[in-house]
Every structure is written in structure tokens, then in C-alpha cells.
Amino acid sequence: MMRTMAVEERLRRGRMEAKTRDAMFRAQIEQGAKCAPFVSAAILQTLKEVYPVEAEDLAAQVELGRVRMLVVAAHEPSGKKLGECQKVSVLLTLDQPDDDDVRVEHGVTGLRRARLLRMTVEAFEQGGLLTQEDLAFRLLNCGLRTIVRDVEQLRGEGLAVPTRGQQQDIGPGQTHRVQAVRLFLKGLEPREIAKRLYHSLSAIENYVMTFARVLLLSSRGHVADEIAFVLRRSAALVEAYRELHAQHANDPACQVRLRELSQKLADPKPAKSSQKLGEKGGTRS
């Protein structure tokens, strides 16, 4: 039993090491120059000695609360060895201001699930996919079984978690942001939606108001790429919001909500997030 655990640990470490900049550099050298591993290792060591990068320089390139990681590219097939997969660099939000609100409302488990949802979607929108091992050992510092249970729970609640092991279930219309807006259009209140999705109230309000701004810019003739640039959101999210509107535009409940949002955009007034939609929260929508 102990030997089996030791083997599993060694394999896990190997998978983790395969998703580092050093491993990516060596793989490209070995494939491009057709050289042996010891040669690529020597080249990498020489490069580090000639062009050192200080830790302070790397830290300055990343915003507070965010972390940059190498993950497997989303287009890579599930059966391919990690060492042979293309990697992409993604910027993930590990901690943000309203995480404290989520913890108070949903507890430690709810906060972990909120972060899990947030970071898997962020990675997917940047062309990469986190594995459950990435989440457990590199980001959330918990057991792999805990992550498995969290993913099963979230999927059971109708939320897609875009990880490498769930590629067949991934779609922009299934992310928690689109789910939140869909529930709002069906008549649910933001506070209830926040509870269902393990989010803060301000985050849900931000998702809804971003949806409203997408519709406003669309009505003015702007295409998805232009809207994404103006709102600083992904084109995939913009398209998902537009498709969501097309699906529910004729629903009576949706029409009521759309009128509310139209009035909100026409007459924005500062208010506490617990009272009105549209206040700027700490979550990127």
C-alpha cells in the first residue's frame, strides 16, 4: 500500500513538473533541435545564468491577488501525455476583495467552490484548462478527493466546471456567469442567485450589469469583438450573453427584467449593492 502511494506521489510530481516554464522550454528545445534531455538541461542552465530573472521582477508583473500559471492548452486531447501537450500561460484570480463576503455567507467550503469556479473559467477563457490536481496541489492546497467532491457537487447543481477531465461538458453558455444571468432573467433575485452559485451579491450584480451593457452596445450596432474590447471581457462571454438574450427575449419574466436593466442604465444612481443592481463590486464580470 505504501509503495503504491509512493508511486502515485512520484507520478503526480512528474505531472506537476511537466507544467512549468522550464519543462516547456526544454521540450521545445528537444523537439526543435532533436537533442537529448541532458543537452536541453544544460542549455536551460546556461540561459538562467546569462539572463537571470529576479523574483521581484516576476512579482511586479502580476496584480495583487492573482497568480500566473502554465496549464495545458484547451485544444489538447485528453489522452495525450502531459509532457507532449502544448502549454499556455494563464492569469488566475486566487484572491479578491469580496471573497471575505463569500466566506461569511457560504463558509470555507463555499469559498473554495467559488474560487474553483472562478479560476477554471478564467483559465478556459484564456485558452487553457486546469486539472483537478492543479486545483488541489497548486492553487487551493487541499486534497484531491475534496476537489472531486466539489466538482461533482457543482455539476449536480447544473454548473459546468471547465477542467481538463470535463472537456466534453464545456461550453461558454454553461459558465457560472451565464448561469447567474439566466437565473436573473427567470425572475430570481440577486441575493438568491448568489447563494445558489457560491458568490457574493456584488459579483452577481456585476454579471447582470455587464450583460445589460452587452445588449446596449449590441443594439447600437457594435460587433462582439468591439464590445469585448470596450468592456474588457472575452468575446466568448459576449457571444454567450447575446445568445442567452436571444433564447429568452420572448419570455414574460425576461421582458420585465430587461425593462429594469434598461431603466438602470438610463438612470444610474449610486446605491448599496444590497439595495440595487449595478454597483461596482470586487469581482471581474
How does this structure look, described?
By secondary structure, this protein is mainly alpha-helical. It has a domain at 172-266. It has 13 helices and three strands. Strands 2-1-3 form a three-stranded antiparallel β-sheet, with helices on one face. The longest helix has 27 residues, at 99-125. The chain is globular and about 65 Å long. It starts with a helix and ends in a 19-residue tail after the last helix. Residues 55-60 and 270-284 have low confidence and may be disordered.
Name its key features.
13 helices, 3 strands
Give the terminus-to-terminus CA distance: 46 Å
Rough outline:
globular
Number of helices: 13
Multimeric state of these chains?
Answer: single chain
Secondary-structure element string: HHHHEEHEHHHHHHHH
The helix content is 55-70%
SSE-based structural type: mainly alpha
Please state how the strands of the largest beta sheet are arranged side by side. Answer: 2-1-3
How many DSSP-defined strands? 3
Largest sheet: 3 strands, antiparallel
Q: Provide mean pLDDT, rounded.
A: 80
Which residues form runs of ≥5 with pLDDT under 50?
Answer: 55-60, 270-284
Proportion of β residues?
Answer: 5-15%
